[in-house]
Amino acid sequence: MIQELFRRVLVGADGTEHSQFAIDAAIAVATKFSAELHCVGVMPPASPETEAEGVGLDQLNQSHASIRDQVASCADRARVAGIRAITQLIDGDPESVIESYAQKTGVDLIVVGHHHLNRFRRFLEGSTSESLVEHSTASVLVARSPLQES
Question: Contact 43/101 with Cβ under 8 angstroms?
């Protein structure tokens, strides 16, 4: 009965050390529950400045490459652990992409990393983990790195 608690686990990857910790947690949970693991990389869109003038294009391309690498690594590690892994790279806003994907695929648990944002950035950008906890129909695990400052 408890084995059926989490049959499908989704982990969000954004190419950072915070999402790497979330991947570690998601693989541990998927292994414990013999769950299918969905490694989802959300590719942020270009800013208006990047689209208009090419400003920051190298940084955006580097970010996308990091996300692709992290998703591939997640799937490889999961498969080595005997977990069925599904990868997905999706363009868009992390909160809406992750929630939409979770609903479409019947995900039982969403695992995301925690980024410490100052008040100003949180006001401007919002927090993906807070938004998912508040609005997701699936359970949400926010994996906070033990090395992260509060």
Answer: no
